Amino acid sequence: MSRAAVVRGLGAVVPPDAVTNAMLAERMDTSDEWIRTRTGIGQRHVVAPGVATSDLAVDAGSRALKAADVDHVDLVVVATTTPDHPCPATAPSVAARLGLGHVPAYDLAAVCTGFVYALASGAGAVASGLAKSVLVIGAETYSSILDPTDRTTSVIFGDGAGAVVLGAGEHDEPGALLEFDLGSDGTLADVIMIPGGGSRQRSGGVPADPADVYFRMDGKRVFRAAVQRMAGSARVVLDRAGWRVDDVDRFVGHQANVRILRAVAEELGLAPDRLVVNLDKVGNTSAASIPLALADAAQRDELSSGDRVVLSAFGGGVTWGACALVWPDIAVF
After folding, report:
1. What is the pTM of this model?
2. Residue 254 catalytic?
3. Which of these is catalytic: 21, 257, 278, 284?
């Protein structure tokens, strides 16, 4: 039997500057009530000028390494939609700044499903023997790609980073990543997109419209697809793990919208008190949202060693994925 990838440590960080709903209402046609009613978000954090995704990734990665009590890993995977540059990848820079030497490092782009995809990638590296330990980071600076005048996106997204260290272990020990389900549907690529800046636009020989450099989302279509795919993917990993819905102690869904999370719970028949929710404090942080939610729940004693946990996410591409694990007794920084 192949080795299991086991969660050994968790680190998370958000920028110090918080933007409240009231602050947004001062510069656009919105209100605290409008935002909370539709999203459940009360504030989000944004980076200061000059701070990039790699800066958050290094901070979260350093915390995860400290939590795991290690100073070296064999592989670094950074899930992000907002890399420091279109080229090269951000992960090698992160690895170098963390003092990890010449380890392999790469970015993974699956938008809000990025962290689950990156976990699966790291778990595969451990199972195959390619690596004995992996640093998996989800990091985003969405404030750099949002149209500040668009209330459909600017009120939702925030910046942050979360990371875990995976180590080789046994399948029956707490923290082992037990089951995964991943999927995509490229026919829905247009529901979450930055139209300009890529080879599709550039090869057409037409300059990008200034508005096309910003993130766009069709909220209604995303809502329907997210509920269906997050619930469906969760069912798959429950079945593969041999768990019933009632066996789940904590469901940690991508923190996109509180109505999506509640709808997923209803679709699964999961008690609402099993949901982990922290988007009210940090907003939607895309690939960083699940590790940030895990860290927040652990630090508030809402996640305990031995809890049966299901992670589930939906993002652009479109992509989706889920993972099942039993939560370990680990440090969180």
Report:
1. 0.97
2. yes
3. 284
